[in-house]
């Protein structure tokens, strides 16, 4: 900043505070001489600005210094306790709050102490303090506080009513609207939750254009808006995180990622722990290494979202890092009982045990499945009984219990089936799935895995019946399996029709997002081509492989090349053994294909950098491998 003339400091500083430029004030005061800085006004303003830039650690340090230098000013002691609470240092905050005994501050201290107890998960203690303080029934703060307690006790319906009552009295408040949206989210009413989130975002766009909402998604480079008071009061960060969580739960990962990038831009070091946690989850399918690094970083902090530990363990198990999952459990053993439910502990323990003792793992999972199945049957009866007596509230609660239990039951069933899937005992895996049909027959995830098991047993007609109803929301490999099922049951027209639909959809996406790479039709053709090559029909199989990589600048990549070259190597092997003899025109097609791969593959690696074993990075690219395959074909033609 430009130099400030003597005598103008007060005017400049208070003008900047009015404009909420707190970081500039902090810089000015810290650059002052000690004599000017360490005055009561200097320290007071510095602490105030630290607090409103969310630097609660420094704020608490300065307020502690102020309270020691001017002990008669009780407000400094209160702000010191408030800063410690905001920094997540609950034990220190409780000691500081208990040390405030001045007359006239009892109500404020009681409210702060209740908030500290709430943060420490001491719900009974927080409730006791609130009940001591609850003199006014019309006080919206009382409704909000009780709403928070009810939320912590998983009584979301009652919490929602408290927040709605407070909203009626206070009108629109961003954080209150967020609390309402959060309750709807917990009640699985995503439509109502998204409506309140939309209100927060729309108001943020209208009232705070300087926060750059949506700019990052649009590809516009913007500077960080920082953790300002305006950003905090707008509740935009919380709203976008909740929107991402809803889309993630609906398995719409692209929309979840978009919600995260729509958030007002901040540098990574400025991100709060919830945002960093959600970024990690949204990046797992594209960059798991980056996602794991973020979750591991959060686990090393003094405070982090309570879901972090459970998500890290589940993702380690999902990606096959069972040893790392065991290490995490050992390292964080003191807090696992606090942050992990019995269900998660038992599930992760069973999945880890699968690596050394599949029988023991299956037994543990079977015990879990039986308990959950009993709970599902009880919930079903409760729903039926409630509907018979027309008790809508009880029926809604029972239905929510059923859905939550089903979300736990399905992963257990999948883990049981995977034990036999890994042993290639697909018939037994099918039996496990059919044992759960009474609960899961309408669940898309369950239907998808049943279809896979049937496909692997070459029960193609049955597989089609499970694949087709979920065709609009599945991955490319599922579409490929469905095409293969049609082909293997002599339904070639259906397979061709499906491929035409995929092609039209890819063309539509290409016009909407020209830079986006879509591999659905590519993978379908690769799978069909591989199938025909495995059956010995190389002419048709290789033609599908060649078609799968067109246009090469969009479809040729590390993974697609891996499967394409396998088919080419199988062809060359059978040529060398004189098992097959092909037309000259077919060999020319293969050579033209390899020439194209050689031309477009200079920058495409054939294996991840960490797996390179040749020591010659320049050889690990598609161009080099295409030349080798071409030389092998030419050598065979010479013979």
TrEMBL record:
Keyword terms, alphabetized: Cell projection, Cilium, Cilium biogenesis/degradation, Coiled coil, Repeat, TPR repeat
Top-level taxon in the UniProt lineage: Eukaryota
Example GO biological process: intraciliary transport
Assigned GO CC terms: axonemal microtubule; intraciliary transport particle B
Compartment(s): Cell projection, Cilium
GO-annotated molecular function: intraciliary transport particle B binding
Keyword Repeat: yes
Family: Belongs to the TTC30/dfy-1/fleer family.
Name listed for the protein in its UniProt record: Tetratricopeptide repeat protein 30
UniProt source species: Aphis craccivora (Cowpea aphid)
